Amino acid sequence: MPVDLSTGIVPVFYRDVFEILNTHGLAKLTMDLFISLFESAKLSTTILAQIWDLSCPKGKPLTRADFYKCLTFIALAQQGKSIDERLLDNYTNKELPIPMIGDINDLGDRFIRLMRDNQCETILCFRYGDLCSLDTIQVELVPDKKGVLFRHFEYEVSSMDCGDNMKIQFRNALDEYSSHTSTVQYDNTNLQADSLKLFKASQIHINFIHQTIVQIRSGLQNYNKQSMKNAETFYSIEKQIQSLSTDTTEVDRWALGVNEYWSTIQKGLSQLPMELNAVAERITEQYKREDELISDHIDMLIDLLQGYKDLCKRFEIALANEQKTVQKLTNQRRSNTITSGTKSLDETLEKTEARLSEHENILQEIEKRNTHALKCVQLETQLVYANIESFIYILSSFGNSQLKLHGDLLQVWRAFCPKVSIIAQSYITNQTTANNTFK
Length: 439
What we know:
Layout (H helix, E strand, L loop, with lengths): L11 H11 L8 H8 L6 H11 L8 H15 L25 H14 L10 H7 L2 E10 L4 E9 L6 H5 L5 H4 L13 H53 L7 H4 L4 H9 L3 H67 L5 H43 L2 H49 L1
Antiparallel strand pairs: 1-2
Keywords: Coiled coil
InterPro entries: AH/BAR_dom_sf, EF-hand-dom_pair, EH_dom, SNX8/Mvp1
Protein name: EH domain-containing protein
């Protein structure tokens, strides 16, 4: 008798657990993965296997309802109850029990690691942080070298995994298709229209992301250039104020009249260049930080997106060429079948069978390669989406840079304003003293 949860009330917790696991491909969950995911002191392998058998129909992918049943039985098992379908009758019009499985985000991470260890073929099973921890690659610019005709640049690339011998490391490695042990087991269903539609939709979306981030980079570059101009402006203002403060021109009372403010201003201005120089320096530091952010991080992400765009173009061209080959072989097969009736029977059968066998082998090889190529593109697509997470780190770094800049400028302007006020106060004090003396 199948288990029915329609009479019970499904807790929000069930939905949360399902959503976080389904994001990573819950349909790929097998009994072995299920046992490894939920095994604990109170949940033995035997109990979890029993839960799986009761909840999941054999030979069918796991559904939301099936997974909810698993969670219900896990909660009952943790309460010390034996696994029995009849226990669900106690939850008619009641909320189903909630299992104790810890933090659901940790559960999602564990699920990813288990799928990675299980070598899932169509799910990358890596997040951005996981990818960053795999290896660190350093790219250093070698000092300029002048050739016979023009100056050229060289780069040194080293990896913590391969050192500086990356070419030697992969020189004799087979291509992915040749080295894949399960190539012969590939199913052609991945090349059906639905799979190609999903590829096309992902391609369009990533192209949109690529164009948008390119525009964002352009905006940040313009903003950064303006910041550098602002720094240069403040350096210029500092020099002009310094020039005013060191001016040695003697101004006669004939020109001043009753306005004796100039000498007070000139003395006070000598204190201001320091703050204006500090403003320019802070803006320059911010320019360097954000220039590094743009050149090292945004450019890298854009290069990755551009690389994916080029990959999709190559895949589409290869797919179109191989479809032409398939059509050509099909036409040849049809032609061979038609002309076979004009020759002797023995000769016709022998040659026709040989040609048909050769054509069939070529067609099968093309189908296998196309299927494998689509799987590779699927993993490359997931790799791109994993790296898009770096955009959040880029925005965070930009925000922190702006926060530091404006915090530093706030301190500088707080020191600047009192000095300007002192100039005015000094003049008022001097005028008051002079007036009292005159009286």
